[in-house]
Amino acid sequence: MNTISIIGAGIGGLALGNILKQHSYDFTIFEAAPEIKPVGAGIMMAVNAMQVFDRLGLKEKIENAGNKIHGISITDESLKPITKTSIPALEKKYNSCNVAIYRAELQKILADNIGNEHIKLNHSLNKIEKNRNYSLYFENGTQAESEIVFGADGIKSRIRNQILNTGTIRNAGQKCWRGLVTFDLPEQFDQEAIELWGKGKRFGFVKISEKKVYWYALISEKKHKHYLGLSENFKEFHPLVSNIIEATSEECIILNDITDLSPIPSWYSENLCLIGDAAHATTPNMGQGACQAIEDAYIIGRLLEDSKDFNAVFEKFQKIRRKKVDYIVNTSWRIGKISQWEKGNTLRNLFMRLIPDFTNQKLAEKIIRLEM
């Protein structure tokens, strides 16, 4: 039996672990963190990801732990609608809907389903070498040998940097704050995700459980005045925005730069394959980063049904996934630019209001349809 190592217990690595377990493979997941802890506040699992969880028998568990979302709306600063995507027909067709959930809760469900015996925490990969097999050297002083290696270790992937020697991280020039707060949202937002677009800044929020709201705020770097408090930056927005920010305690807010990965020529090498952000990190403007990592895991699982030759699987996997992933990375980058416009917003909003509903539906289906 192959010894299989997955580097990284993020959502992609854990999804892959669940798929390999379903196919009765033995594997170990090595995770740098000392515990699988709450990073990233909330997350939205779109219909494509939920279909994969359905096949793993985890759909209901995830739905119960999160909040079903039936509509995604973009509005202007004063909450006046620009576009709305609701997909009841597609939800019915794919027997799944979007679910907003606390990221740590999702990771716990995925990890519990795999079983702790497969996950080694506090194993931060320092070095990987290709000999007959792969030698993995960890910062805690331990090492491991592995025949097959999956790099699910994110945008700054050491696997990618050391074995494939490739990858340029692009900075979108935007700062992103993410927060989690106990807050009573008006009832109209119970099952809807909202993103407000202003000038060089935007704000999104969604309910992830009975009382918890996940929110994010993006400001173009050149627009962000460091001496202003965050809610001060959004004072021209609907008052709900400042109320949400001010109700959030400091330790429940994280700040990141918005980045992605320029497309790399190959995601695999002999007996080694990258998935998720390590292969094709995207900006978060389509809510598809983690969902695409889950799709990667799903496609690898489907290919393993027909072949036990991992190298053949890796080659096919990239062929199947490449087009969709490049489309998402490029489209998300463009949306990020358009949504952060400083000028011409009234015109932009007008044009977006003119996009017919069926066009939005078609775009939604392109993203949520699984390739196999």
UniProtKB/TrEMBL annotation:
The keyword Protein transport does not apply. Keywords: Monooxygenase, Oxidoreductase. Residues 4-304 form the FAD-binding domain. This is 2-polyprenyl-6-methoxyphenol hydroxylase-like FAD-dependent oxidoreductase.
